[in-house]
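--- STAGE predict ---
source: upstream dedup step, 1 unique chain passed
mode: sequence only
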Amino acid sequence: MDIQPMTLTGKLIRLEPMLEAHVPALARVALDPNIWQYMIYGQMGTEEDLRLWVREILHRQAQGTDLPFTVFHQESGQPIGTTRFMEIHPEHRNLEIGGTWYGVDYQGSGVNAEAKYLLLCQAFDVWRCIRVQIKTDLRNTRSQRAVERLGAVKEGVLRNHVILPDGFVRSSVLYSILEMEWPRVKCGLEARLADLGVTPS
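--- STAGE serialize ---
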């Protein structure tokens, strides 16, 4: 697994290596409190909050555990969210996809499906991962439905998993996709994208 910054290009979106320089444009779509309601980082109420968060994620990248992306909308050329590979374990050929959020105008638009397709293709087809996992807040039923639509398998609930900045004790739902399940998941994602008029690259 050669974990280096890269650009992943689709029809609706483009995933570029996250940079601190992206923060001012990201802040234009990031400060809606609904975006961060279930995220472990707490609310991003100001551009400076977002900047500090991006710096933390870039620090993790420097340590080799994360590979973050800024999500750019192809039609407008504007950044509309972020996502990343995290908990990267090359020796075990597994990782997690997380840190995903989009501006409210782009939620439910097919952007997430294409982003997950691009990331999963990189993980399974290029890096030959044997497992990719995704976690979400137990309260976030919308996110759970989105992960289940991918075809990921629900493994269970991590009870009292993390303490959020506001003191709430979050339980997390754990999902995974294994290498032998990827062909089925890939076909399903390609069919969903085709229904949206998007032919995968």
